[in-house]
Write a structure and sequence with these properties.
The structure is a homodimer.
Chain A: H1 9-13, E1 16-21, E2 25-30, E3 33-38, H2 39-56, E4 62-72, H3 75-83, H4 85-91, E5 94-97, E6 102-109, H5 117-129, H6 136-151, H7 161-172, E7 187-191, H8 192-198
Antiparallel strand pairs in A: 1-2, 2-3, 3-7, 4-6, 5-6
Helix pairs in contact in A: 2-6, 2-7, 3-5, 5-6
Chain lengths: ~200, ~200
């Protein structure tokens, strides 16, 4: 269904955004296909891939918190934080002890807009806490997926045309834009051929 | 799939035309459905229903030819023309003898833009010529269908947004807008539910 050459830079320039239906799905025509794009799944995918790319290239991108946020961690949370300090740093968390059980968080992963910063840190620690060291990469991946999901725009949430355009272009540039990190589709494609068959312009 | 209440006047006012794909199909959202409308089949249907309505209400609507067109008819064509004069008048043909084998055509059915007037008349006579009188109504219907088809806008033929809007509204006001006179679909509908299932937002 999806040929790879579709997603060349030239190709992306030629797509045309028709509009949105049900406040959630964007209709995009491209060459001889019609795409329906789920804005939530698309955003989730785009955030996930941004985070994954940085993780792979070891260039964490941090959103600086100024002033830093002071939070209390339990003993087991502290232990987890130290144990996975490197991994947490790689996804963008910057923290240091602040005396007693308190920690100062001065950076969180970029792109995770709209989440409670403290909640985010607790949740990631919680996800890592009981992991066997050999599975820590999977745990990080799964956390990134769930963080992406939480911070992604929802269905029914208003996107401007400009935001939609930006999101769709970023999605279509990905190597595999077709599934969100949870495996749900981001794009449903209808070919011209399929549509012509439905209209009985082609009989077969 | 299609509830009748959809097509009330209020409902029609609420549809939203998103745009066109493949130079042929118009995407229209309405409430919790997405419609794809084939512009050729839609136009064919609309022309057909206009002609049928007039035929039923015995109000023929004629497009006056000025000056009238003079054409020659063979003996058997003349005989057919006289035999079905009433029926021909009802669909909008106005003609009278003009001496010898010549006839003066001063009116042809309205809405059949872009057809050669002479060709149209010959073709209708030809369709009626060998019909058994009991089947003449069917023959007229089938001729109206084929005339509608010929004079309808084609796929890939440029419609302005204004023309498309007018066509779509007229289509949606019909009692049964969903099939062209040849039985091909004019509209393919996708419900929100179907789309959500495709995106696995609904699992069943």
């Amino acid at each position: 269904l999806f040929e790879n050459q579709f997603l060349t830079k030239e190709a992306i320039a030629e797509h045309h955004i028709l509009g949105q239906i049900f406040d959630t799905y964007w209709l995009v025509s491209f060459s001889d296909k019609l795409f329906m794009i789920d804005q939530h799944a698309a955003h989730e995918k785009v955030i996930y891939e941004r985070l994954m790319k940085r993780l792979k290239e070891k260039q964490s991108m941090t959103q600086t918190l100024s002033p830093p946020m002071i939070i209390s961690l339990s003993k087991s949370e502290q232990e987890t934080a130290y144990r996975f300090e490197q991994e947490l740093l790689e996804i963008g968390f910057v923290f240091e002890p602040f005396g007693g059980n308190e920690f100062s968080i001065s950076g969180i992963p970029a792109d995770l807009y709209g989440m409670q910063e403290a909640e985010l840190f607790y949740e990631v620690l919680d996800g890592l806490m009981n992991e066997h060291p050999s599975k820590v990469n999977d745990a990080i991946l799964s956390k990134i997926a769930s963080m992406s999901c939480k911070s992604a725009v929802k269905g029914n949430q208003r996107l401007s045309d400009e935001e939609a355009k930006y999101l769709i272009e970023e999605l279509l540039r990905l190597d595999n834009p077709y599934n969100c990190p949870h495996g749900r589709p981001t794009i449903i494609a209808f070919t011209k051929y399929e549509i012509e068959r439905k209209f009985k312009r082609i009989i077969s």
